[in-house]
């Protein structure tokens, strides 16, 4: 393999901070592994196996394993759906290696990039994707339903409201369907904009590039959209808390990588030049992944003033690392970015079959949502709820007082059968409370636990992991990556508070 050009790598990584080849099939990607129990074995024997090993009938674990939402157990009266907020398509000026259109900004779309996006969300079996293209670029210049990546010939179906399209029920090549909804990104993340709020591109540019509470109010009332604070490290602390946010982006890979540029350069160079001793490319982000201090502090600040939901934004552009990695796929493919992170939403069972854009926005706004760093693996069995006087409160719930409140934390495990002899990961759930200087730990456990609240406040769970189970995929120096990091962020619980609601 040719040596990596350092200048090219530096430019590529810089683009990634500011912001393919088609994925080949992998044996550990989506195929269901043969069950441990013979097909004709007694049902009670199979049940015993599953009871002893919850992963017994799950597919083999691997860095590229994909779990469809159909494999996630329902939670009380809810089903769990998975997807993303914050991604850029051929309607962002800086997507697609800086060439989202061909023959100029008004030319035809970049077909390879267009289909790579669709393939990326389909390959990950996502249920929803809330696109957020840049208003400073092309988003203002085009009309719905083009900005929903709508393709009638592929079996897509538009969801309409008031005689106009608001979302696309996208159909994948394998028949899987997912909801794709437009919006925009300008530090203010506009989520689920049902229609353009101005008639001309010039008027749209002026409105969408303004970050004010007046803009947020119009997005709410006329666009039926949600507004979230994104790119925490780009804000001043005293500024970010001034706005009437509905949501908060707890992690953004581009700002994370910008803060760890040298480590990213080293890791990518090693993976390209020495693939036999380097970590699997699907784990490249481990070299730089770290919680941002500003992200955590601002999250605490905001939830002490108003109720917001939290999400991880993949911020995928397909514009930063075009070179092919050892797995035959470009380093920044849509598939890879969408597979690194996960957002999981609780949808009422009686709405699941007909869930549309407003169903999801309502679930977001309610706070019934948790997030995960999926390069460690999918979390199975996670739960967080509260009880008070016989009433159960889901994530995002607000209890009238702290009297008699019990918080329940179910500690997740890694989804999938781990290879024989694999060392188990160390998984610890920490219950945190928002305080002026960030988050204070009030309880923790490696097994499910209950916590009796003694004081009012905002609580969340941070599930942390030492990923020992990844050793075989971490190259010659796995010890460099086996440190404890956050794996799952719960939604927040508001105990004895009376904060502004979205």
Which terms summarize this structure?
24 strands; TIM Barrel; 5-stranded mixed β-sheet; 21% helix; 502 residues; globular; alpha+beta; disordered N terminus
In CATH's first tier, which class applies?
A: Alpha Beta
CATH homologous superfamily (4th level) name? Metal-dependent hydrolases
Q: Could you name the CATH topology?
A: TIM Barrel
Count of helical stretches = 11
Instruction: Please give the alpha-carbon distance between the first and last residues.
Output: 53 Å
Into which percent range does the helicity of residues fall? Answer: 10-25%
Characterize the structure shown.
This protein has helices spanning 6-18, 43-52, 111-123, 201-208, 213-221, 237-240, 253-258, 261-273, 293-303, 334-340, 357-366, and strands spanning 78-85, 128-130, 157-161, 164-171, 177-181, 184-186, 188-191, 226-229, 247-251, 309-312, 341-348, 369-373, 379-380, 383-388, 391-393, 398-399, 406-410, 413-414, 426-435, 438-445, 449-452, 457-466, 485-489, 493-495. With 502 residues, the chain is of the alpha+beta class. The protein has a single domain, classed as TIM Barrel, CATH 3.20.20. Helix 1 (6-18) crosses helix 8 and helix 3 (111-123) packs parallel to helix 10. The longest helix is centred in the N-terminal third of the chain and has 13 residues, at 6-18.
Per-chain topology:
Elements: H1 6-18, H2 43-52, E1 78-85, H3 111-123, E2 128-130, E3 157-161, E4 164-171, E5 177-181, E6 184-186, E7 188-191, H4 201-208, H5 213-221, E8 226-229, H6 237-240, E9 247-251, H7 253-258, H8 261-273, H9 293-303, E10 309-312, H10 334-340, E11 341-348, H11 357-366, E12 369-373, E13 379-380, E14 383-388, E15 391-393, E16 398-399, E17 406-410, E18 413-414, E19 426-435, E20 438-445, E21 449-452, E22 457-466, E23 485-489, E24 493-495
Parallel strand pairs: 1-2, 2-5, 8-9, 9-10, 16-24
Antiparallel strand pairs: 1-11, 3-4, 4-5, 6-7, 7-8, 11-12, 12-23, 13-18, 14-15, 14-17, 17-21, 19-20, 19-22, 22-23, 22-24
Helix pairs in contact: 1-8, 3-10
